[in-house]
Amino acid sequence: MSEINSPKKPKHRNNLFPEAIKPYSDYNSHKPKPNSHSNLNGKANGNANANGKTGQSSDSKLSSSSLSSSVNTRNSQKIKDFIEQLYQLKPDQTILGDKANQLEFTNADPPNGLITKTYLKSLASIPQAWVEEVKSKHSLAVSFINTEVLADSQKDEEPESASSKHGAVIIGGAENDYTWLALISTRLFRKAGGVLPIEVMLPTKEDYLKDREICDLYLPQLNAKCVIIKDLLDASTATNAELDDDLNKYIWNNFTLIKRELAILLSRFENVLFLSPENVMLKPMEYAIFDKQFYKDFGLFVWGDYGARTTLPAFYEIADLEVKNAKTSVYGLPLTEELISKSAKLTSEELSDGVNFHDLENSLPYKQSDASELIIDKKQHLGTLLLSLYYNLNGPDAYYVLLTGRFDGAHGAKETILAAAHVLSKQYYLINSEVESNGYWYDDEFKGVSMMQFDPIVDYYSYEAFIDKFSRKEGYEVSYNKYQRWLKESSERRSPLFLNINNPPLKPIELIQQGTVVKENGDRVRLIADTSYFDAEFETDIWRVMNDYICHLSLECSYVKTWFGKGNSKKRDAFCKGDIKEHLLWVSSLGSTADADLDV
């Protein structure tokens, strides 16, 4: 068996995840220009070890300690009332579906690598009647949010303790084995030192029943609990009784599109770290981040994806946003007011054909958004969440096309949170450190497995240091590529926070038996390559956790039952004594502190 990607020693062997670097200067000293791509757009610590099975049997009653609380129930009626109002502001399908109002698309490539206004307008031909219908309903939705919703959010509420005010929310569910993945994510969250309480949001009671052992036994050991979204919504009724059935059908027919917003809105936390179940925390996540002035100023941290934005100019017309003539970023890197003032004034021709449209003032950021994680203050951004929910409810019919410029609107859902904040002139911070792909090489081909995202606090101070050092340097032109190269010159300029392992996710049975980590010829590969922040020991810990639940604790859940059936079957026994044991021993042998007597 050959080793495919040899681990290298990390540069920070004794300090794998350094704390946020010391601020180079006062936080406000180089604040980029508001309404630019500075992204300042305007106006009980759980037990990290899973213990043996005790307590309730699999056919016991629902565990009150592991399911939703009265706090969630109080939120649900208010949220359903808001959704009811937005439901009545859908664009008229008879207008959007009219043959005369169908959109036409092209597949042209951007000229000279620039995603200009002219290029974006060429991607789709949109009838004016379509635009006017979507715009009129959008205006009503924004008006409703700005008046009734935001006025309601200003009402004083009972003070909450930090443990209930701050927390993490992870999407669960039997579909795609999300509850299994949420358990692994939660366990690794605790192993990394994260202390925030966690709610795993399940779509329905059926999802709970399929994975009740996770909900009733293992998550509570980790200061985490399951919350059933449908139970909360069903406990609430529409103010218009005749509308209630239609509203419920509308919500559940579109649940996949709005589950992120519903999970955040229905959680009991005010400040939420939202994680997809494939996400793994790489360093401690503590209450302190929510007390930082930097977080309080923005209330929303968003991470970028790989691609460049192709939001159509028609979106800005519909949202009544004026994209101005100043260039305020360079391929998404924010410019300060001083740098903007030094820039040459753009001609009308340059504005249309000589500059990236999403580098202009009051446009959305140049980079696409990643939907796998965000940090949000629900009170500050209640309107953002509801407008995002509105965009997703009407995404397939309108907003996904507008936000992506694609005929199929693919991946439009990931753009709605940032777009909603932008439209409502709410501040947000888009992390400037570009996402980094991690994976493995095999047969001279790289396989991207995960996305590494970085700490927003370190990100801001690094940006500030770069601007302070180079923006006034004679003859030096600030650019996105120069900034990313500068970041990578020293590991202390970035601090990884998340690793989104999604291609494929952490499903050990498939990983081994379907040829991902064990090839037909016997070769083995690691899923996660070494970085200057971690080595093979990190992946060893992941395999240990998965082995622990499946083999040592004989976890019964929908994921395991799909492969092995119920109980300690011969298939499970063979997998534990052979497949996973062999791979865990192999991965652990690559680490610098490998234990020849590893208990597997």
TrEMBL record:
It is found in: Golgi apparatus membrane. Its main location: Golgi. Keywords: Golgi apparatus, Membrane, Signal-anchor, Transferase, Transmembrane, Transmembrane helix. It is a single-pass type II membrane protein. GO terms for biological process: mannan biosynthetic process. Residues 1-74 are annotated as: Disordered. InterPro entries: Alpha_mannosyltransferase. Residues 41-70 have a biased composition (Low complexity). Pathway: Protein modification; protein glycosylation. One of its GO terms (cellular component) is Golgi membrane. GO terms for molecular function: alpha-1,2-mannosyltransferase activity. Belongs to the MNN1/MNT family. PANTHER family: ALPHA-1,2-MANNOSYLTRANSFERASE MNN2 (PTHR31646:SF1). This is Alpha-1,2-mannosyltransferase.
